[in-house]
Every structure is written in C-alpha cells, then in structure tokens.
Amino acid sequence: MQALLVIDVQNGIVSFKDFSEELNKIQQIIQDFKAKRLPVIMVRHFDEYEESPLYRGSEGSELHESVKDQADYVVEKTTPSSFFKTNLSSLLEELGVKQVFIIGFNTEFCCMFTAISAFDRGYEVTFIEDATGTTNDGETYEMKDLDIRDFVGTALHWSDVIEVLDFEEYQETYQK
Questions:
Q1: 152: Cα separation from own chain's centroid
Q2: pTM tops 0.85
Q3: How far apart are CA 126 and CA 132, in angstroms?
Q4: What is the pLDDT of residue 109?
Q5: Over the stretch 26-55, which tens digit does the pLDDT of each residue have?
Q6: Among 53, 43, 51, which Cα is nearest to 86's?
Q7: Secondary structure class of 44 (helix, strand, coil)
Q8: H or E element at residue 131
Q9: Domain span at 165
Q10: CATH number of the domain that 151 lies in?
Q11: What is the DSSP string of 73-127?
C-alpha cells in the first residue's frame, strides 16, 4: 500500500513567502490520494523555544488551512526526521504501507531527512520535488545561485534508491 506524507505544511512556514505553486500541487496530490482511499498523513513540527513560529500552541504551529481538514492521521515531531521519536513507523506498519510519497516543507531539512529515514526503514520512497518548498535560499547557505529544491532532488535521485519526480512525472506515472 502507498501513503502520502505531508511534511510541515504549517502556518509559520507557509506565511514566510509565496508558496502558492507548491500549495496547489500539494492540494492536488492530497486529492489524488483521497480519491484512491490511500492514507494521508500530516506531519507537524514543533520547536521548543518560544520565539519560533513553530512553537507548540502558537498559531504558526497549526496546520495551514489548505490542508488541515485533509489529514487521516497527524504525526508530531521535534526533529527534521518524521520518524525520530514519533509513532510514524508503527502507524505505517499498522496500515501495511510499503511505499511513501513525500511532499511539503522544508525541502532540505524535514523532507530530505524523512525520505532518507524512510528508505533506511525499508520503504520505497517517492519524493515529489516541486511539491516541496523551503523558506531558505542560496544566500542562506552562502551559495548565491543554489536552487535548493533541485539540489536535494538531484542528490536523492543520484542515490539510485529514492524515486524523485516532478509533479508532471508523478501524474504520468501514478495517475494512469
């Protein structure tokens, strides 16, 4: 069985900049999974310091309105990996999931860490590159022209174990 992991689509991240293209793709993919009656698992990140937009109990830590009513399950985490010290592994096992699809935020942290952690646990992993987004840019990493999403997608693809698709490839491959 397949499951969709929707990573950190929370107010504190989505309000950072214009993510309308990413959110549109995320919503379409969620609807695809809902139509097939496949599980949609939302993952929420919480930070422990009050200044964070993802501080537990803050408006920023809430799921964004575009996805909040679409969750079949919600997993809470405090690290970049959706598996570390969470119930995600047991939930996926209980559901009989063999393949996970990863979309959401932040591409180079929570999405990538979750993809690698899923592979390490024996799941087939499909990473939908342009259905992820990040609050960071090349300036953040002192690499002016760095396209973070493309870099992460390329690195995961080169691993030869994680399937990396863009939205159109996802539709062609999985919407037949």
A1: 13
A2: yes
A3: 12
A4: 78
A5: 999 999 999 999 999 999 999 888 888 888
A6: 43
A7: strand
A8: strand 124-133
A9: 2-174
A10: 3.40.50.850
A11: EEEEESSS-SSTTSSHHHHHHHHT--EEEEEEE-IIIIIHHHHHHHHHTT-EEEE
Residue ranges, the chain, pLDDT below 70: 136-144, 146-151, 176
Enclosing H/E stretch for 32: helix 20-35
- Distance of alpha carbon 44 from alpha carbon 27, whole angstroms: 17
Q: What is the DSSP letter of 135?
A: S
Average pLDDT of the chain, as a whole number: 89
pLDDT value of residue 96: 97
Cα–Cα nearest to 103, from 128, 81, 80: 128
DSSP-derived letter for residue 35 is: H
How many folded domains does the chain comprise?
Answer: 1
Angle at 24 between CA 88 and CA 43, to 5 degrees: 15
Give residues with Cβ within 8 angstroms of 50, minimum separation 6.
none
